[in-house]
């Protein structure tokens, strides 16, 4: 005769059934949301960018309101100030970048001669490999297939870049307008969203939303400040070393530093190549590596701990993977929602693991 199930067995079964039910609901909800994002990604990209701007600026607007400044006036003044600062930055960076590109083009023949007579022989001697010395050598190796040309990949990249730039110009007009209205309605939107949560779950959901807010705001605001600081440091340091396009390298490294490790890697690679072209293998290359290591030490021991701190809770590897997946699936929209999505996933994964550890299924010996 079959024995009746034990209380522990009942608890295990209840936990598994409840977990499976929640997993099915979560999978269906996330799947439907991903399909909706995929279908509407072009239309949602400016809206998502506007909400990211509103999310980042809302604490400043709230600070103005606490000092008895009307919200609409504070929003207009802040957006105007940011737009003016961006315009001034472009007026400084773009002409400087154009001058550096022109100077680099004038000096390029001398750099190429030094590359073929000094740098390449030195690298061949150190690495024990044969590197093409002239354009004819490169063409011969391309024709023989020894050096493959990624023509199809380049065509796709160029087509995507053209489409992205075209969409960017149209979005630049729409995003500030949407950001203004999102900031005006931000607090009311949050309150309305909370009102739609069933009362019995409201405290729980609001608590988790605050946790997600802490993770996302800590990462986004902190990473923006760290990236801007690193961009300035790279630009100033490489300019003092004498690297061509130092300002351009600094700006590019600062923008890409929003993705952990990417900006620093691009800064080191770009500065090293430009240093080899101008100076060859000498003390300037050591100075580039030394300044890179100094910036990395400053970021790791001062900037990140003090600005971002330990409260963020999003590991850099998790951020990189989230950005890769989001960008591959949804393009620029995916990059905008990747970090918030990773924060939401982390909160509920931690909640699920905590429920599992407290269940009889886990504690049963």
List keywords for this structure.
365 residues; mainly alpha; disordered N terminus
Structure in a nutshell:
With about 375 residues, the chain is an all-alpha fold.
Explain what this protein looks like in three dimensions:
By secondary structure, the chain is mainly alpha-helical. The chain has a domain at 40-187. 86% of the residues lie in helices and 0% in strands. It has 13 helices and no strands. It has helices spanning 7-39, 41-66, 71-127, 135-144, 151-184, 186-195, 199-241, 246-256, 262-279, 283-308, 316-330, 332-357, 360-363. Helix 2 (41-66) crosses helix 3 and helix 11 crosses helix 12. The longest helix is centred in the first third of the chain and has 57 residues, at 71-127.
Write the layout of secondary structure elements.
Elements: H1 7-39, H2 41-66, H3 71-127, H4 135-144, H5 151-184, H6 186-195, H7 199-241, H8 246-256, H9 262-279, H10 283-308, H11 316-330, H12 332-357, H13 360-363
Measured by DSSP, the beta-strand proportion falls in under 5%
Rough outline = globular
- Structure class: mainly alpha
Largest sheet: none
Helix share of residues?
over 70%
Overall residue-averaged pLDDT value: 75
CA-to-CA gap between the ends? 26 Å
State the total count of DSSP E strands. 0
Order of helices and strands: HHHHHHHHHHHHH
